[in-house]
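The instructor's notes for this session suggest beginning with a concrete chain rather than abstract definitions. Hand out the sequence below and ask the class to guess, before any prediction is shown, which regions might be ordered.
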Amino acid sequence: MQIRSIVHGFFYGNYFYGLCAVALSIEATLQQEYPLADWAYYLAVFALTTWFYTLPYLLDKTATVPDLRASWYLKHKSFVQFSQAVLLLICCGYALYFVLTYGRAMLQMSALQWALSLSIPFLGICYYGISFNEQYNLRKIGVLKPFIIGFCWAGICTMYPILWHKITHAEPGALDGVGYRLFIKNLMFIALIGIMFDIKDYASDARQRLNTFVVRRGLRNTLFSILLPLSIIGLATFWMYSFSHNFSMMKIGLNTLPFIAMLFAVQALKKRRSILYYLIVIDGLLLVKAVCGSLAMLYF
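After discussion, reveal the predicted structure:
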């Protein structure tokens, strides 16, 4: 029972999202051949990701309890509030340290660096809505929702580590050609996971008239006309790039595994799955991708 409570807390509390954000940040940094950031940066990434994903559940004033995750938040509200306070303190503390330490370097940032830095928090705020106003937010644009999520994740994990390095070393510029290609790859991979999550939320999205892919096209068409072809296109594009750049077979094989896992996940969603299945297995594709990509860069 205690292990079950820990598992529920880790996944329902969005700490797994924080872990995935750190792992993907390390992977993207290695793939762009930059040195890793310090431990405080990754702690801030973990804290910010977990805090941001948890905030809507604390602000939800709905009287009904629609699923097991919402029930968990209701039962553990005091713990979650304490956790949120600690996470926010970590984020604010690191932000203050960063400004005090690298304030002068930040003043020398180019317009492009500022635009890239601010675009992610701006989209994140707009995703839930200013002051979390449910009437005006980007989530209402159902077909764009997974791509907005993908853009924010790709920005945090692909762009931010490089911008951190540029600022802390007073270097100009932002992403190079490899960085932008990697950004698009990560955006699409995470967007596909977002579309899978829309399958879980089909009933509530349909009631709210939120036109996600699964609401508009139905389950079967979403799986076999959208998710499956896009996964195969993503894999084929990676193979073309890797063979043209003479990647080793081990590097190709390791980076292929997440795409294969995604194809199996698409097939598995033909059956109704629990929320924990989505949080562990579907979101677990993020960690699989990060681990495989990092191992490929470190050892092959």
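Then share the key points. The CA atoms of residues 91 and 254 lie 33 Å apart. DSSP finds 14 helices and no strands in the chain.
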